[in-house]
Structures are given as structure tokens and as C-alpha cells.
Specification:
- The chain is α+β, with helices and mostly antiparallel strands and 148 residues long.
- It has a domain of 100 residues: Pdz3 Domain, CATH 2.30.42.10.
- The chain has 3 helices and 7 strands; from the N terminus they run ββββαββαβα.
- Strand 5 and strand 6 form a beta hairpin.
- It starts with a strand and ends with a helix.
- InterPro entries: PDZ, PDZ_sf, Synaptic_Scaffolding_LAP-MAGUK.
- Pfam families: PDZ (PF00595).
- One of its GO terms (biological process) is receptor localization to synapse.
Length: 148
């Protein structure tokens, strides 16, 4: 298994994500640090951007907005931004990230996937056959009236 999920409590989840560095790097940008707080009164390091076709993008688990708690077991707490960047650059080929993610509230019916899809049939799958049936019924009715 390439990662594990643990309950972080308080509406957060924590996950270990193992990435293999590519020639272009790990494939994401970071913000934050003691000298460049991304969130007021929070000097944590956050993922600001996932680069398309990079290691993180291809892995698919790291998300923009994730808080990176540690790199290869090294805590990122109380680091300046440039020191965090340097830590990532020197992390080696196989990099283990411990991340924290805010859990999304589940609003909606049971089974709602939260990705903009209801899980049922698309509206067009119902409307198109319905309209075709209505048009056919009107055509039959008009043909029947012409014969009278």
C-alpha cells in the first residue's frame, strides 16, 4: 500500500503519501512558513498548486490546500518558507509526505458523492426520450385528425 489514512479528529484527516521524484521534481508548489504565512496566525506549509503530469498529479492523492505536516519524517513546523523549499529539494528520490486535509461536510442525500454528480441518471437521459415520445404522439394525433 502506498499510503494510509488515520483519523485526525476535529474535522481533519491525515494521510501518508509516498511519491517518487521525477526529472521535473515532485510536481507541486508550496506556500507558507514562519516568514510567509498563508493563513493568518498559521505558519504551516500548504500545497498551493499541483503541476499537471508531475509526480503528485499522476499519483492523484495530494490536493491543493493540503497542509504538509512532515517530509520523510522531518516535521515542517516553525520553518521559514525557503527552509521548507530546501527540505523538499534535498528529500531524495522517494519522498514520504504526511499531510492533513480538512474533511468536507456531507450535505445531501445518502450516497451523494460530493463531486457535482447526483449518482442518478443525467437529466438529458430522461428529457430526450420524453421529448421524442411527445413529438411522436403529436405526429400520430395530427395524422389521425387528417384522416377524419
Amino acid at each position: 500500500m502506498n499510503g494510509s489514512v488515520a483519523g485526525g479528529g476535529g474535522g481533519f484527516s491525515e494521510e501518508i503519501i509516498n511519491l517518487t521524484r521525477r526529472s521535473s521534481g515532485l510536481g507541486f508548489n508550496i506556500v507558507g512558513g514562519t516568514d510567509q504565512q498563508y493563513i493568518s496566525n498559521d505558519s504551516s506549509i500548504y500545497v498551493s498548486r499541483i503541476k499537471k503530469d508531475g509526480a503528485a498529479y499522476l499519483d492523484g492523492r495530494l490536493q491543493e490546500g493540503d497542509k504538509i505536516l512532515s517530509v520523510n519524517g522531518r516535521d515542517l513546523k516553525d520553518l521559514r518558507h525557503k527552509d521548507a523549499v530546501e527540505l523538499f529539494r534535498n528529500a531524495g528520490c522517494d519522498v514520504s509526505l504526511k499531510i492533513q486535509r480538512r474533511l468536507q461536510p456531507q450535505n445531501g442525500p445518502v450516497g451523494h458523492r460530493g463531486d457535482g454528480e447526483s449518482g442518478g441518471l443525467p437529466l438529458a437521459a430522461i428529457l430526450v426520450p420524453g421529448l421524442a415520445l411527445a413529438a411522436t404522439a403529436v405526429w400520430i394525433l395530427l395524422r389521425y385528425r387528417q384522416r377524419m
